[in-house]
Amino acid sequence: MNTLDTPSRRRFLKSGALIGGGLVIGFVVPGAKRFAEAAPAAAAAASTGFAPNAFLRIGEDDTVTVLLSHSEMGQGIWTGLAMLVAEDLDADWSKIKVEHAPAAPAYAHTTFGMQMTGGSTSTWSEFERYRMAGATARALLLAAASKRLGVPVEQLRTDNGAVVAGQRRLRYGELVADAAKLPPPTTPPTLKDAKDFKIIGKPTRRLDGPEKIDGRAKFGMDVQFEGLLTAMVARAPVFGGTVKSFDDSAARKVPGVRDVVRVPSGVAVIADHYWAAKQGRDALKIDWDAGPNAAGLDDAKLRAEFARLAAAGGGAVAARAGDADAGLKGAAKVIEAEYHVPYLAHAPMEPLNCTVKIGADACEIWTGTQFQGMDQIAAAQITGLKPEQVRIHTTFLGGGFGRRATPSSDFVTEAVHVAKAAGKPVKTVWSREDDVRGGYYRPMYLQRARIGLDAQGRPVAWKHVLVGQSIIIGSPFEKALVKNGVDSTSVEGVADSPYIKDLKDHFVEVHQPQTGVPVLWWRSVGHSYNAFIMESLIDEAAHAAGQDPVAYRRSLLGAHPRHLAALNLAAEKAGWGEKLAPGRARGVAVHESFGSYIAQVAEVSLEKTGNGQRIRVHRFVCAIDCGLAVNPDGVRAQMESGINFGLGAALYSELTFKNGGVQQSNFHDYRVLRLDEAPTIEVHIVPSAEKMGGAGEPGTAPVAAAVANALFALNRRRLRELPLRVPA
Q1: Sign of the CA dihedral with 645 first, then 626, 404, and 96 last
Q2: Helix pair angle (527-544, 549-556), 10° resolution
Q3: CB–CB of 320/506 below 8 Å?
Q4: How far is residue 31's CA from residue 175's CA, in Å, rounded to a whole number?
Q5: Short-list 476, 475, 473, CA closest to 486
Q6: I need a surface site. Which of 102, 377, 605, 631 has the fewest CB within 10 A?
Q7: Could you tell me the CATH number of the domain that includes residue 66?
Q8: Residues 471, 612 within the same domain
Q9: What is the rounded distance in angstroms from the CA atom of residue 289 to the CA atom of residue 648?
């Protein structure tokens, strides 16, 4: 875990400044930039109250406003990060409020060095920084109370939003004016010991729940103000296509259409409201230059090419030890299998949208984004402004799953181009069809594996080849995440799998062809397909060995106690080995991703339909070891979310390509899980004092494998492709 950089792991900068009515202290974060000069500007939004640092302010009415450096997109950090501040501040939880922070270097991710949300990192990466923010404020409030009462700080304590001296209580709101005048602590305050936690680790209701229920919550689509216009962009139907010419005469005749402008991504129709913009866009006549992908981008051709590469050898080496070929030759039995997963869209419930207002010396952006740092720089380049002149108002995100975190800042830069061309404030809106067909997908992968088993059925050699696009190659993150030609996100969950790494003889290679399809991280990234493939393969090995799938995994994971603890808990709670109703079966999967260890047991059946059979998932039991669960309710909610998200992909979702374009368009043909298909889900948290991991993504990764393994237990048919389809 990254910590604050001090002689004793934490340190405050000695310089500070009175900005916005409060003292601002910049933190030093290892591996990232020093933000002393940026912290005051970032906290300047707090015009009243006591702002002891860039992460919170306290008002005279005792309210504590936590400034959220990350984006709330349903994962629960609106509550989780506020809990960290409140714990070491000893705040009154009923007085806690939360706001998204402005885009500023002070809020850069403690690991990645820019302001962003992703990788299931928000809670563990902020665990000390946000607690330290609360502890700093508490120290200054204690000092202010000491000065006012003439009592040494050592004789004071804090409790539920007040400083206590004997029988006297001074509310934090009474002390903020005095505290704001004090110099910052010269030594870092001591953080609470875990045994003294009152908030962290306790199930806590979400702070954003009430306003999302009653409609007060503001998403990007809700942004509206006087003079704001709406735009829709006609984009090329083929990836890589460009506009040759267009006729906008019919579009301009649509009532409410104000302008039609050409932008780098296509042609934008700007109107008074969404419907006029859509009708105007539909009326455009555009002559497209299809580019190089129109003929070659086709599912069958892509799969044939991937298969050719898998057989060719010579890929980049992701992991190697001993002699895998010799180990396979000496094995008592060899399993050979080919697996395939499709391209997937992110399909968040709120389609992409971005509102932009450009002035002579400022640009304001309202959007739900995961990448404030990248978006701010991109907008500055387009407008000719300095990054600090671009103000990003982060709204709630109606889902993200990675789509709102593009290295190119595609939907934000497009909106800035539209507003710049229009010369007026414009909200650029994507339809659902635009979103599904608009690019940036979970990549398609084909993988082949050969596993050698000894006479007892244990793996002794493993040879594995992966073929699929790299998300990272060609992006700004290539230097950090691509080593020796291997994109680490492509092979995660395979190259570092304990099933492979523990073997004396193993070999993993990867081919990463360019296809013309824009690809991006999708919830659980490489683990989203590699967990399915690895846990299906190990299930194949268990059955080939004639062993119970849970017992078999236990025998292989003895040196991996966190995997084993999750597996044992899930199996126990699922009643593994107990008799099921006729026509039902269980499957198991266990996988580590994003620092968390997940085991899942799926209970399935097959139901007859007019066209054959459909898969019905009745029950899902999940166990997670994520280290300390800051908000156990939040962890459970994320496991439920991840399982349902993963089930949609396991059972239904896929994108297909023909003549250079996506064939699907909306939820009728790009299926996701529906309410009546959601299983009963039970989540159990492994008590753990180990290093913290994430919760937003890991729950999705093992889902497809657990279901596929249950189906094999039911009908002895091994399904090696997603989405899972049972032959009639």
Answers
A1: positive
A2: 110
A3: yes
A4: 36
A5: 473
A6: 377
A7: 3.30.365.10
A8: yes
A9: 35
Tally of residues, the chain:
728
- Give 211-217 contacts, CB < 8 A, sequence gap 24+: 212/396, 217/396
Cβ contact 250:283 at 8 Å: yes
| pLDDT given for residue 296 in this prediction | 72
Closest CA to 549 of 501, 592, 603, 586: 586
Burial of residue 218 (CB within 10 Å: 0-12, 13-18, 19+) is middle
Provide the 3-class DSSP secondary structure of residue 462: strand
- Contact at 8 Å (CB) between 221 and 353? yes
Note whether 159 and 90 are within 8 A (CB). Answer: yes
DSSP string, 233-272: EEE-SSTT-EEEEEE-HHHHTSTTEEEEEEETTEEEEEES
Res 100: pLDDT: 97
Cβ-contact 56, 126 below 8 angstroms: no
Name the token pair of 175. Answer: 């002390």
Question: How far apart are the C-alpha atoms of 49 and 174, rounded to whole Å?
Answer: 11
- What is the C-alpha separation between 548 and 546, in angstroms, rounded? 7
Beta bridge partners of 464: 449, 508
What is the structure's pLDDT at 48? 58
Give the separation between CA 360 and CA 364, rounded to whole angstroms: 11
Largest Cα–Cα distance in the chain? 83
| pLDDT score of 372 | 98
- E strand or H helix at 622: strand 612-625
Q: Taking each helix axis from N to C terminus, what angle separates 410-422 and 372-383, rounded to the nearest 10 degrees?
A: 30
377 and 485 share one domain: no
Q: Is 188 helix (H, G, I), strand (E, B) or coil?
A: coil
| pTM, two decimal places | 0.93
Domain that holds residue 29: 12-204
Residues 397 and 533 placed together within one structural domain of the fold? no
Q: Residue 625 in contact with residue 595, Cβ under 8 Å? A: no
How many separate helices (H) and strands (E) can be counted in the chain? 21, 31
Query: At 650, is the secondary structure helix, strand, or coil?
Result: helix
Collapsed DSSP state (helix, strand, coil) of residue 402: coil
Q: Are residues 356 and 318 in the same domain?
A: no
Contact 554, 572 (CB under 8 A): no
Task: Calculate ∠ Cα 388-367-349, nearest 5°.
Answer: 155
The angle subtended at Cα 168 by Cα 165 and Cα 174, nearest 5°, is: 95
Query: Residues in the chain with pLDDT < 50?
Result: 1-47
Query: What are the distances in angstroms from CA 18 to CA 49, 54, 180, 184?
Result: 12, 12, 8, 11
Residues facing 344 on adjacent strands: 442
Alpha carbon distance 26, 17 (integer Å): 10
Is there a single domain that holds both residue 631 and residue 650? yes
Report the C-alpha gap between 625 and 431 in whole angstroms. 39
The pLDDT score that the predictor gives to residue 391 is: 98
The type of residue at 100 is H
Query: Which contiguous run of DSSP H or E holds residue 293?
Result: helix 293-296
**Confidence at residue 542, expressed as pLDDT on a 0 to 100 scale:** 98
Query: Same structural domain for residues 469 and 417?
Result: no
Which residue's structure tokens are 């009326």? 283
Task: Give the span between the Cα atoms of 593 and 601, in whole angstroms.
Answer: 17
Bridge partners, 519 (sequence order): 441
Proportion of the chain in helix, strand, coil states, percent, rounded to 5: 30, 25, 40
Q: Does the residue 125 lie in any domain?
A: yes
